[in-house]
Write a structure and sequence with these properties.
Elements: H1 12-20, E1 27-30, E2 33-36, H2 37-53, E3 61-65, H3 70-81, E4 85-88, H4 95-105, E5 107-112, E6 130-133, H5 134-143, E7 158-163, E8 173-177, H6 178-188, E9 201-204, H7 216-223, E10 226-228, H8 236-246, E11 250-253, H9 255-266, E12 277-280, H10 287-295, E13 300-305, E14 312-315, H11 327-334, E15 338-340, E16 345-349, E17 364-369, E18 387-388, E19 391-400, E20 405-411, E21 416-418, E22 421-423, H12 425-433, E23 438-448, E24 452-461, H13 469-476, E25 488-491, H14 505-511
Parallel strand pairs: 1-10, 3-4, 3-5, 4-7, 5-6, 9-10, 9-11, 11-12, 12-13, 24-25
Antiparallel strand pairs: 1-2, 7-8, 13-14, 14-15, 15-20, 16-17, 17-19, 18-19, 19-20, 21-22, 23-24
The structure holds adenosine-5'-diphosphate (ADP).
Adenosine-5'-diphosphate binds near residues 284 and 411.
C-alpha cells in the first residue's frame, strides 16, 4: 500500500550505522587497549573487504574461535555486513565437538585468537579453506580499503549461528536471522527488560562464543552503551580491577562468576560503586548470592533465556502488585524467573500437551514463541519434536502466576523423581547454599531401590569445612519438605562446571553412576 510507514528491512546494518555515526565516540575497552565505536566501525568496513578477498560470499559461514575482545566484535558486524553468517564456536568444546560444529555449520573460514591456534592443532578442520589468527587478520584489515558497496541484505537472511553448549547432549545449531537479531536487541534494552542505555558501560563476562554473548555486542552499540571486555582472564581479581578502573555499570554472566567476585567486594578490596546492575543468567540465581550483593547495594537482575530464544527472553523485575512488599518478599519475587519479554509469549503445558492454568501452582513444561524464538535446529530434523506450531519446548519445568510471572522449578532432566513425586534440584540447591559453610551446591538424583531416585548433594565449602549430613539436615528442616532431605552429601573442592560455567549435572551424574541407595 502506498504511503505505508516503514519498508526498511530490520538488519544488523542499522545497528552498525548507528554505532558508526551517532555513537562514534563511544568507547570499547579490551585487554589490548581502547578504541571507539567509530574506529571499530571503520575497521569493520575494511574487514568486509578482507572477507571478500578470502572468498567469503553471501550465505557462507565464517567461524570465530575467540575470547571477548573488540576484534571479536568486528567479526560480529563484518561477517553479517558481508552477507555471511558468523558462527561463534565455543572454545571450550572438546576436539570432536569442535570438528563436529565446524563441519555441521559448513564453515569455510575460521578466525582464532592467536593464543588459541595451538588449541586447534589437534582438531580435524579439513573442511575449512582458511584458518587465520587474529593478528594476521588485523594486519590484512590495516592494509585493506573500506568496502564501499555492501551487499543488500534481506531481514530474513541468516546472520549468525550458535550451537547450544551441550549441557544435555551434542551441540545443536540455532540460526539467527537479521530480523531476529535486530528485534532481540531492541526488546532487550527496554527498561523493564535489561534497561541498557547510553549511560551504561557494559561488561559482558558471558563469552561472545556462548549464546551470542547474550546479544550484548548488538544491544550496547544500538543504545550507545559502551563495551568493556575482560578477555580470557575472568578471574575475580581481574574482573574487580576492570570494574573499578572502567567504572562498569552493568555486568553480565553466569552465577558462578558473581559467587567468585563476592568475597573481594565484601572485604572492600575494590571499588564497585559504579555497578548498578549485575545481570545473572544461564542458570538460576542462588538466594544467598542475591542477598549478599543486595547487602552491598548492588542489585542482581535475574535473566532467563536460552540459545534458542536468541537468547535473552525474560527478566525478573517485581511488578506493580509487588511494590508494597517488604525487601525480603520482593527478593523472593526476584528469585523467581520473571515475565517474558514484550514481543514473546510464554505458557506452561502438561504431559498431554494441554495448556495449564496460570494459578501459581501447576507445574508443566515452559513453552515460548515469538519473532526471535527458534522454530527448528539447523540441519537437524531429528530434533523437530522440540518445536511445534511456532512454540519452542524449552525443557524447563515452571509454574505461571495469574499475571504471567513464572518460576522455573528445574530442567525436566534435572528433577529428582522420588517415590513418584518430583523434587526440584534448584530449590534444594538454593536451600543448601543458604548454609553459611556452603559456597556452592549441586543436587542430582541417584538410583534408589526403594524410591526410584533420591537426592544427593555435592557441596563445595566456603573454607574447606563442609557441614556434615546431619548438620545439613538440621539446617534444611523447615526450609524444605522432610522427604526432600538429601540422602548423602559429597564434599568437593569445586563443583564440576560446563564449558560456560554452569553446574555440570551430566558429569556429576556420570561420576555417581555406580552409586545405589537403599
Ligand atoms: P545449554 O542448554 O547448552 O545449557 P543455554 O545457555 O541455551 O545452553 O541454556 C539455557 C538453559 O539455561 C535454560 O533452558 C535454563 O534451563 C537455564 N537457565 C538460563 N537462565 C536461567 C535462569 N535465570 N533461571 C533458571 N534457569 C536458567
Amino acid at each position: 500500500m502506498r504511503g505505508l510507514i516503514g519498508g526498511q528491512p530490520l538488519t544488523v546494518r542499522t545497528i552498525f550505522d548507528r554505532m558508526r555515526t551517532v555513537y562514534r565516540d563511544g568507547e570499547v575497552v579490551d585487554a589490548r587497549g581502547r578504541t571507539t565505536y567509530g574506529d571499530l566501525a571503520d575497521r569493520v568496513l575494511r574487514l568486509v573487504t578482507v572477507l571478500h578477498d578470502l572468498g567469503v560470499r553471501p550465505g557462507d559461514r565464517v567461524a570465530s574461535f575467540a575470547n571477548n575482545s573488540a576484534r571479536h566484535v568486528e567479526l560480529y558486524y563484518a561477517v553479517p555486513l558481508a552477507g555471511a553468517v558468523l558462527h561463534m564456536v565455543n572454545i571450550r568444546l572438546h576436539d570432536d565437538q569442535i570438528a563436529y560444529v565446524v563441519g555441521h555449520a559448513g564453515d569455510t573460514v575460521l578466525v582464532a585468537d592467536d593464543d588459541l591456534l595451538d588449541r586447534l592443532a589437534s582438531v580435524d578442520l579439513t573442511g575449512l579453506k582458511h584458518v587465520l589468527g587474529m593478528d594476521d587478520l588485523a594486519a590484512r584489515v590495516d592494509a585493506a580499503s573500506p568496502c564501499a558497496d555492501l551487499p543488500d541484505l534481506d531481514e530474513e537472511d541468516p546472520c549468525g549461528i550458535c550451537y547450544t553448549s551441550g549441557t544435555t547432549g551434542m551441540p545443536k545449531g540455532v540460526v539467527f536471522s537479521h530480523r531476529a537479531t535486530y528485534l532481540h536487541a531492541m526488546a532487550a534494552c527496554m527498561v523493564d527488560h535489561l534497561a541498557i542505555s547510553e549511560r551504561d558501560r557494559v561488561l559482558p563476562v558471558v563469552p561472545l562464543f556462548h549464546a551470542c554473548g547474550w546479544g550484548l555486542p548488538y544491544i550496547a552499540p544500538f543504545t550507545g552503551a559502551e563495551l568493556v571486555f575482560a578477555g580470557a582472564d575472568t578471574s575475580p581479581e581481574n574482573l574487580a580491577r576492570i570494574i573499578e578502573r572502567e567504572r562498569v555499570t552493568f555486568a553480565a554472566g553466569v552465577p558462578t562468576i558473581w559467587t567468585g567476585l563476592l568475597p573481594l567486594a565484601e572485604n572492600g578490596s575494590f571499588d564497585y560503586s559504579s555497578l548498578r546492575t549485575l545481570g545473572i543468567g544461564g542458570a538460576a540465581t542462588p538466594g544467598p548470592l542475591m542477598e549478599a550483593w543486595d547487602a552491598l547495594g548492588v542489585p542482581i537482575l535475574q535473566i532467563w533465556g536460552m540459545t534458542e530464544t536468541a537468547p535473552v527472553a525474560c527478566t525478573s523485575r517485581p511488578r506493580r502488585a509487588h511494590r508494597s512488599l517488604s525487601v525480603e518478599e520482593q527478593r523472593a519475587v526476584r528469585l523467581k524467573t520473571g515475565t517474558i519479554f514484550a514481543g514473546l509469549e510464554a505458557r506452561i503445558v502438561g504431559d498431554d500437551g494441554t495448556e495449564l492454568p496460570w494459578d501459581g501452582a501447576s507445574v508443566g513444561e515452559l513453552e515460548c514463541r515469538g519473532p526471535w524464538v527458534a522454530t527448528g535446529y539447523y540441519d537437524d530434523p531429528g530434533l523437530g519434536d522440540r518445536f511445534h506450531d511456532g512454540w519452542l519446548r524449552t525443557g524447563d519445568m515452571a509454574f505461571m502466576e495469574p499475571d504471567g510471572y513464572f518460576k522455573i522449578v528445574d530442567r525436566s532432566k534435572d528433577l529428582v523423581k522420588s517415590g513418584g513425586e518430583w523434587i526440584s534440584s534448584l530449590d534444594l540447591e538454593a536451600a543448601i547454599m543458604s548454609h553459611p559453610l556452603v559456597r556452592e551446591a549441586a543436587v542430582v538424583g541417584v538410583r534408589s531401590a526403594k524410591w526410584d531416585e533420591r537426592p544427593v548433594a555435592v557441596v563445595a565449602p566456603v573454607n574447606g569445612v563442609a557441614p556434615t549430613l546431619a548438620e545439613l539436615h538440621a539446617h534444611l528442616a523447615g526450609r524444605v519438605a522432610k522427604w526432600w532431605l538429601p540422602d548423602d552429601v559429597i564434599v568437593v573442592d569445586e563443583i564440576p562446571k560446563t564449558s560456560v560455567g554452569k553446574f555440570d549435572k551430566k558429569a556429576i551424574r556420570a561420576q555417581l553412576a555406580d552409586k545405589e541407595l537403599p
